Amino acid sequence: MIYFEDLEIGKPAVFGTYDVTREEVLEFARKYDPQPFHLSDEEAAKTHFGRIAASGWHTAAMVMAVIARRVVAEQQAGLGSPGIDELRWKKPVYPGDTLTVSGEVLEKTPSRSRPDIGSFRTMTTVTNQHDEVVMTFISIVLIRRRPAADQQS
């Protein structure tokens, strides 16, 4: 189990990758972001995208899938997140792209009111297969502190 005390400020981590498919891009767009450049090759060709591009919100969801799988596999003592800061979509994400999600802990803070938890902020960077940055954000995560009984062993 990974607790607050195990987190290292400045230590880079690669969470994993995600292969973007045309089918998922279209399915997400139809359901959540039905703008023409997410749904039609012809309409997308008329824009700066040049071809169908994934919704930024779909990109965020794909990134969350990668992060969540890693957190579960590592058995991180996470307690959710109160939000993210500074979300930026830097470049379009296209069907056929492979996204790589990495992060670095920027700071960690023990809770003043709840001694059993802390929080940390992570800079998350998402790149495509050409090592181009396509999205960045800072996440705020709540996490359990190591139980006192575990600290003695």
Strand line-up in the sheet with most strands: 1-3-4-5-2
Mean pLDDT: 94
Number of strands: 5
The run of helices and strands is EHHHHEEEEH
Largest beta-sheet characterization: 5 strands, antiparallel
Q: Taking Cα atoms only, what radius of gyration do you get, to the nearest Å?
A: 18 Å
Q: Structural class, from helix and strand content?
A: alpha+beta
Write the SSE topology:
Blueprint: E1 12-19, H1 22-32, H2 36-39, H3 41-45, H4 56-74, E2 83-89, E3 98-110, E4 117-127, E5 133-144, H5 148-151
Q: Could you characterize the architecture of this molecule?
A:
A five-stranded antiparallel sheet has the order 1-3-4-5-2, with helices on one face. The chain is built from five helices and five strands, in the order E-H-H-H-H-E-E-E-E-H. It is of the alpha+beta class. The chain is 28% helix and 33% strand.
For the structure shown, list the relevant keywords.
153 residues; five-stranded antiparallel beta sheet; alpha+beta
